[in-house]
Design goal:
Helix content is about 20%, strand content about 35%. With about 575 residues, the chain is of the alpha+beta class. An eight-stranded mixed sheet has the order 28-29-31-30-32-33-34-35, with helices on both faces.
Length: about 575
Amino acid sequence: SNPDRGMILSDPDGIIQIYAWDLNKSSLSQRTAAGTGHKRGYLSPDGEWIYYHHDQGGNEIGHVHRIPWVGGVPEDLTPELPPYSLFTCTFSDDCRYLIITRADKQGFHIDIRDWDGDSGFVIDKQMVSVGASFSNDNALAAIMTTESSMTTDLGLQIYEMASHTCIADLWDGKGTSNHLLRFSPVIGDNRLLATTNASGYERPFLWNPITGKRFTPEMPELEGDITPLDWSSDGRHILCIALERAVYHLYLIDLHTNKTTEIPYGGGSIGSAQFRRDNIVLQINDSEHPRCIIETKYSGTAMMTLLSGRSVPPSTRLRSVNFVGAQGDNVQAWLATPDGTGPFPTIIHTHGGPRKVMTDQYSPVAQAWVDHKFAFLSINYHGSTTFGAQFMDSINQRLGELEVLDIQAGVKWAIDNQVADPSLVFATGGSYGGYLTLLSLGRLGREFAGGLAHIAIADWTLLYEDDTDVLRGFQRAIFGGTPKEKPEEYRKASPITYVNGIKAPMLVIQGRNDSRCPSRQMEVYEKCAKEAGKSIHVEWFEAGHGSVKIEDRIRHQQMMMQFAVDIVNRVRVRG
């Protein structure tokens, strides 16, 4: 409701912090100064407050704070609660209500706070997700929960604010999920904008939980996910992104005419998209250009850059390639090669998640490898999004199995196509990608010359014992139970099980305060690897699940590149 105020996460001083963004003056004013930085922030609809999660040393466990957009003293909004993991903050349009979706040792909680009275309440659930919304008149609140499926599949529940009771729920059945965006911005319109993947791909629909009526807009025939990002203030237009095999498209749905129009924007990855008065604001980037924020007309014409980052050296474009992976499925990947003729030393990269996807996006890590004469292949393995629900859910209760087969197929494709030198292939990735790096080194043996893992999972059982309550719930859902209930599944999925199969030296970079991949499981893995006579070095840094300090990220990249270059030089001398 205040389109001249924004909020930005940026790192001009070397650490990602939260900034108030004055669009009239095109100016940024720093509002946080945490030593380990911030990865998320939330701007209230009236533009008066910036909300964020204040943790200890980057461990992602703490309290929600807020600070005035104009600057001032931060305020702890939940001083009476023990520290918790935060899913998200959600506001009512008039800012009277705030939903804090959080988890602690007692479980998952949807904490509805009332700033003007005492009508707030707490909903306790077995597992929830990040979405929530209030109807425009504050009579209803919508949440996402796994209560119907008892798996990672999500359904919707509607609560009546006056009675604090659930009055409606929606779930499209086994193997499907419903995600919500928001209620209609128009007063008196109780329709909820949400998505379903019942067709195999995510598609938007409108649902009135009071009448039960459901409407699906006409959409283009795409084999990919279509996700709504915003609803115009007059209720007429919905802004959507489509991800078809990791490639973005931007669409505008006119609910008055039931017509969907593609908006040209220049290509690349879309980080966010929203309405601003009669225009659209986009955060975009591609493999040659870092993130910038542009404003455009509905037609995609008259684009204007609102914010841009630093200029960068000339960069190499990532190109999409495909090969046959696990189960005979088509697997997509992104490839960049240095100047010259291959084969090259090659980096096989796997993204985190697993329910994420690598797209045509700016990656200084990828560009650094290519600048130093390495080919870079990033694989969208089974479990990745945008390739259909079946592809994404295929890894459930068999973690690591299909992903490693995809990695093996990617290595073979790179060698067969004269991209990769078969004696100089390196595995790398962070978080779940770090997990797949360790698992591939143990299960594929001599196919790699080295491994470079970052904030990695090494033992799912120890991870469960030390993990946050949020991720314990995810593990129970994706494994089908706890380590005591599914010991063989946890054992088979854990890299520590395959330590004896490792043939290549490893470098692991791990955070001491990481609550997602706690330190003990990596300490045990390192000890087992060394006792088995394996070459491993673990570099610890004092932060959580990845550092937001530029100097740390540069230092870690330098370490990985030096580690790989030393191996390349040794192999070439022997050769």
